[in-house]
């Protein structure tokens, strides 16, 4: 009879542990997925911002005999622009290149329309993502315009502001959902741990009544919480890795694009799983340590 009771208790304990592990794995899988979406959304946001370029123009009026001198001046100016703080990438566009681009845009193959290269040489500047901010774009343009040799800087400010605001709005929504999933992770894991500790409330109180110290009672529960949290987090991360590998292979993207960010995401998910498990265990166990025997029947 005693053997059958022990076997029943062991099966119930295993079932309880499996439930906790699965709960942790599922919740942290979703949390990690939101983290991956947030990381890649930020990267694609930065990529799109870098496509919003400004054009810095050189003086188009100069004597043909000074062409060598002007070419050297433009080369020096181009190098200076490349070193400016707001500049992510700079591309030099000569008069010939500008004329070819104009013909391509207008669908003209003949040179008959242009007797000479009427377009000035320029520098196409891709700004760093943080300088696409409407509050900083004007300052970045002033910095570029102050470089000797640059006579004018033009950009489609309306387009930049619209794109920046839309991207910022999308990132805020994704961040909001990530925080929501973090809160859900805390609540769901906490509930699973509390149910597990609830099933052991009589054991906890019995140990306390026979003289065991609270630290002694808490220790095995905390160790078990660390193990369950680590196992659940690992399963969640393995599932996340499998899903992410399948997704990146389908779209032809690299599985790992930023080792540093992915590493910290793994550490965060693992840490959240263990931390919440331990914290929930301590609170749930402490509750029964402070309660009376009679309260155990009504908890």
Automatic annotation (TrEMBL):
Organism: Chryseobacterium luteum
Keyword Membrane tagged: yes
Transmembrane segments: 20-39, 170-193, 221-247, 262-289
PANTHER family, per database record: CELL DIVISION PROTEIN FTSX (PTHR47755:SF1)
InterPro entries: ABC3_permease_C, FtsX, FtsX_ECD
Highest taxon of source: Bacteria
Domain ABC3 transporter permease C-terminal: 177-292
GO BP term, example: cell division
Family statement drawn from the similarity comment of this UniProt entry: Belongs to the ABC-4 integral membrane protein family. FtsX subfamily.
Phylogenetic placement of the source organism: Bacteria, Pseudomonadati, Bacteroidota, Flavobacteriia, Flavobacteriales
Location(s), subcellular: Cell inner membrane; Cell membrane
GO cellular component: plasma membrane
Protein name in the entry: Cell division protein FtsX
FtsX extracellular domain sequence ranges: 54-153
A Pfam family annotated for this UniProt entry: FtsX_ECD
Main location, first listed in the record: membrane
Stretches of the chain forming a coiled coil according to its record: none
UniProt KW Cell membrane keyword: yes
UniProt keyword terms in alphabetical order: Cell cycle, Cell division, Cell inner membrane, Cell membrane, Membrane, Transmembrane, Transmembrane helix
Membrane topology recorded in Swiss-Prot or TrEMBL: Multi-pass membrane protein
Job description of the protein: Required for cell division and gliding motility.
């Amino acid at each position: 009879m005693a053997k059958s009771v022990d076997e029943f208790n062991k099966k119930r304990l295993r079932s309880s542990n499996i439930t906790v592990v699965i709960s942790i794995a599922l919740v942290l899988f979703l949390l990690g997925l939101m983290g991956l979406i947030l990381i890649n959304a930020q990267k694609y946001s930065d990529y799109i911002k870098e496509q919003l370029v400004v054009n810095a123009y050189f003086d188009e009026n100069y004597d043909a005999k000074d062409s060598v001198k002007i070419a050297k001046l433009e080369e020096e100016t181009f190098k200076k622009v490349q070193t400016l703080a707001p500049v992510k990438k700079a591309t030099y566009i000569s008069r010939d290149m500008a004329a070819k681009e104009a013909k391509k845009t207008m669908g003209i193959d003949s040179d008959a329309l242009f007797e000479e290269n009427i377009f000035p040489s320029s520098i196409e500047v891709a700004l760093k993502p943080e300088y696409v901010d409407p509050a900083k774009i004007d300052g970045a343009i002033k910095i570029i315009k102050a470089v000797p040799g640059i006579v004018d800087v033009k950009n489609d400010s309306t387009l930049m502001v619209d794109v920046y605001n839309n991207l910022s709005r999308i990132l805020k929504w994704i961040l909001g959902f990530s925080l929501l999933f973090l809160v859900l992770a805390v609540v769901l894991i906490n509930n699973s741990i509390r149910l597990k500790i609830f099933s052991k409330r009589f054991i906890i109180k019995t140990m306390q009544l026979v003289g065991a110290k609270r630290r002694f009672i808490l220790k095995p529960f905390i160790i078990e919480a660390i193990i369950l949290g680590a196992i659940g987090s690992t399963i969640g991360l393995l599932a996340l890795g499998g899903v992410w590998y399948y997704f990146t292979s389908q779209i032809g993207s690299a599985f790992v694009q930023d080792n540093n960010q992915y590493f910290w995401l793994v550490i965060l998910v693992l840490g959240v799983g263990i931390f919440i498990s331990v914290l929930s265990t301590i609170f749930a166990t402490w509750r029964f340590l402070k309660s009376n025997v009679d309260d155990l029947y009504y908890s």
